[in-house]
Specification:
- With about 325 residues, the chain is of the alpha+beta class.
- Helix content is about 25%, strand content about 35%.
- It has 7 helices and 19 strands.
- The strands form 4 sheets. The protein has a 6-stranded antiparallel sheet, with helices on one face.
- A hairpin with a 2-residue loop joins strand 7 and strand 8.
- Helix 6 runs parallel beside helix 7.
- The two termini are about 40 Å apart.
- The relative contact order is 0.11.
């Protein structure tokens, strides 16, 4: 991993305890790692952490392709070892900086895209802060400050961990999908429904307000052929995005009102359905490719059972709960 960013640290502790903690976290995250008596290598997010036993210490080197990922992995390791009462002494910490992956953006527009969706546009001062949301992962976390309070943004502390505000300063932190990104602008759709803090916020004319956009994170458009997408209204933004990203054969089956499908009305790849699970059940079993489904927790649960009974594995499908 030459020519990439790196940072170093060390732990004055029993190497067995350090390596055991790393092994447990790698298994929890289901990420690859290599381990010998004196060396552990942990790989995630196109980044790498190497832990080398040197006499009584464990030396750590983190390498990553960008600062956001470097700080994120540093934070993850700091948190992991802190939980095990193992203190890391880092050569460099971004003490006081905004949390890794957090960009502050201003709301520039809110428009009624369809009867049940509002399209929100936010703008960053620096185009680079928005551009990373235009490729790769589909999702980001929206940080909405408490109404009527000055935002206290999460920041990195001296140990490399992020400190989040609590109590009256705690954020509402829902996950949304990037529908479009161009220059310093990022757009996402909010599904209008009662009881949603984000829906209420979007309808309150928040033009000019500063929000936090954190990420990107979550899934990406599966790079398989053919790709079959199933989703309800809440999955519609992700389906719109994947249809725009996929250069491979793709079909989408969406349980939504005809009015909410206005952007996709003339797209021959899209079929409106009345019942998501019925559409999945009727889908040919020998279709091949990859099946992606998102909707209610119950729909996702039943879809997993249905597809597993067909003999499909995690390599063949993904079923995500977008709401419960």
């Amino acid at each position: 991993m030459h020519g990439l960013l790196n940072t170093k640290g060390f732990i004055e502790a029993d190497a067995d305890a350090v390596f055991d903690a790393l092994r447990q976290r790698a298994a929890l995250w289901d990420v690859p790692y290599e381990m010998s008596e004196d060396l552990a290598v942990f790989s995630v997010w196109s980044s790498e952490a190497r832990l080398q036993k040197v006499e009584r210490d464990v030396h750590i080197t983190i390498t990553a392709p960008e600062r956001r990922l470097l700080l994120t992995l540093q934070e993850s390791l700091a948190e992991l070892f802190d939980e095990k009462k193992l203190a890391v002494k880092w050569d460099e910490v971004a003490d006081g900086a905004l949390a890794p992956g957090l960009s502050l953006m201003s709301v520039s527009a809110v428009q009624r895209r369809s009867p049940n969706f509002l399209r929100v546009c936010v703008e960053a001062e620096d185009a680079e802060d928005a551009e990373r949301f235009g490729s790769g992962s589909l999702h980001f976390r929206l940080l909405l400050p408490p109404k009527g309070r000055q935002a206290v943004w999460p920041r990195i502390n001296a140990s490399g961990r992020t400190v989040w505000p609590e109590g009256e300063d705690a954020f509402h932190k829902p996950v949304y999908t990037t529908v479009a990104q161009q220059g310093n602008r990022l757009e996402f759709d909010v599904f209008r429904h009662d009881g949603s803090p984000t829906s209420a916020w979007a309808e309150s004319n928040p033009i000019g307000q500063t929000v936090g956009i954190m990420g990107p994170g979550g899934g990406s458009c599966p790079p398989v052929t053919p790709l079959f997408l199933f989703g309800d209204e809440t999955a519609l933004p992700a389906i719109i995005r994947m249809l725009s990203l996929s250069a491979r054969p793709v079909e989408a089956f969406v349980q939504a009102s005809p009015e909410d499908l206005c952007e996709l009305r003339n797209d021959p790849r899209v079929t409106r359905v009345d019942d998501l699970l019925q559409a999945l059940e009727a889908f040919p079993q020998d279709s091949g490719g990859f099946i992606w489904l998102a909707g209610s927790a119950e729909a996702a649960r039943r879809a997993r059972i249905m597809l597993t009974e067909r003999g499909l594995t995690k390599r063949d499908f993904a079923a995500a709960a977008y709401w419960s």
